[in-house]
Amino acid sequence: MATVKGTVKWFNSRKGFGFINSEEGTDIFVHYTALSGRDDEYKTLNENDKVEFEIVEGQKGPQASNVVVTEKAPPNPYNSGGKRDFRF
C-alpha cells in the first residue's frame, strides 16, 4: 500500500476520531486505533500535525490506517476534544 501525506484537520481526543486532509485535498476519517505507537500510551493527534498514513476502505468509506506523526503542531487549547488547558 502506498503511503500518503496529510495534515490533521481536526481530532476529538475525547471521542477518539477526526479527519486528516490529504495532500490530494481529500478529507480522510481517522480513528485513534489507527495511530501508531505503543499500546500502553495515550494516542491522540493535534490540529495541523503533519502525518503519513495508508488509506483503507472502512465501513463508511476511506479511512486512515498506520498513521505516523512526522511533524507535531503546537497543541491548541481551544480544540482539544473538550479538554481545556487554562494555565497562566
From TrEMBL:
SMART domains: CSP. One of its GO terms (molecular function) is nucleic acid binding. Residues 58-88 are annotated as: Disordered. Residues 3-69 form the CSD domain. GO terms for cellular component: cytoplasm. Keywords: Cytoplasm. It holds the Pfam family CSD. CDD domains: CSP_CDS. Gene3D superfamilies: 6.20.370.130, Nucleic acid-binding proteins. It is found in: Cytoplasm. Coiled coil: none annotated. InterPro entries: Cold_shock_CspA, Cold_shock_domain, CSD, CSD_CS, CSP_DNA-bd, NA-bd_OB-fold. This is CSD domain-containing protein. It comes from marine sediment metagenome.
